[in-house]
Amino acid sequence: MKLLITGGAGFIGSNFVRYWLEKHPGDSLVVLDKLAYAGNLENLAEVADKIKFIRGDICEPLEVLKAMEGCDTVVHFAAESHVDRSIKDPGVFVRTNVLGTLVLLQSAVTCGVKRFHHVSTDEVFGQIDLSSSERWTEESPYNPRSPYSASKAGSDHLVRAYYQTYGLPVTISNCANNIGPYMFPEKLVPLAITNVLEGKKIPVYKPGNQVREWLYVEDHCSGIEAILEKGKTGQTYFIGPDNPEYSNLEVINKLLKIMGKGEEFIDFVGDRPGHDQKYALDHSKISKELGWQPRYGLEESLRKCVAWYEANREWWQKVKSGEYLDYYEKQYAKR
Ligand code: NAD
Ligand code: TYD
Predict the structure, then answer these.
(1) How many domains does the chain have?
(2) Is 310 part of any domain?
(3) Which helix (H) or strand (E) holds 237?
(4) 91, 190, 107, 195: which is closest to 150 by C-alpha?
(5) pLDDT exceeding 90 applies to what percent of the chain?
(6) pTM
(7) Which of 122, 213, 218, 219 is catalytic?
């Protein structure tokens, strides 16, 4: 197989590249990535000689066509991915997530790719009340509430439209919050771990009772693998963990315990506008139809993350410089 991996220099994309090469050493991989702020060639350093890397923008049709030439499978990770940034600057989210996905779909039709897999998020379904035990299914209505989730919802709709209108063989996965190595430290878990390692406090949005589902990134990769190998075209599959429900504060307290620190490292800051209260996925479809199960529980996932960030200080210290410092100052200034 020859795969085009968009966004393969980002957090999940680079983990997927490593995962795929280990499991499918005979396959050829082309990575197309613009190297936006979260894209980093160091994330691919271990496998640099085993892939073809193209620096390019998914919004540029000629660059995309050239990269896709000869590929039978596209796995589309490239996106602007952080909710807080989407609140400050929504335009770039619409450009990359909506227009970029459209350009890829058009190219995929032209090139006659055999599978276009679109990587999406649980956030497109909006929020669940904290008091509710509802879990979303693949049939739940879309109800995005942030510019990030609205732009991802737009991309999901385009992917579905290309299946119906042009017969493009697509699949979609909507996944829970990921954690793992090479995650950009603007997101809660790597931000918390690296701040504590630097002796700084963790900014927790008040009141800290919001609920997310946390999946170790390797489980996301194996879920996508199951869909590529056994999934039906035109179908959407949820990928999520089997953990009990934990609030953000409970997750942070677990992390602090693993790191041998106490609650004095928590800094309650002003809440995110329009903050989604809770996400919860019912992943029984992928489990029943494709036999996929998550391998890691929350405790083990957090321990693995702490160990990785402790062992890779150089990586995150470099990442937490330049543009990041500017972002951090603005994001947490008046909170
Ligand atoms: P990330 O921000 O770490 O990586 C995104 C990558 O896309 C970067 O390498 C960046 O350089 C690249 N990129 C951005 N704009 C581009 C453009 N115009 N052209 C080419 N490349 C471009 O994000 P991530 O956390 O790895 O997320 C990957 C995908 O998974 C996204 O589609 C996201 O919506 C989805 N997802 C993420 C999570 C999560 O918890 N992080 C959960 C569910 C779904
Ligand atoms: P985040 O990692 O940004 O992922 P998402 O918003 O896409 O789920 O945030 C996870 C949760 O943590 C979310 O409820 C917001 C909260 N959060 C904080 O409390 N403090 C922070 O500094 C950040 C970035 C997030």
Answers:
(1) 1
(2) no
(3) strand 236-239
(4) 91
(5) 98
(6) 0.98
(7) 122
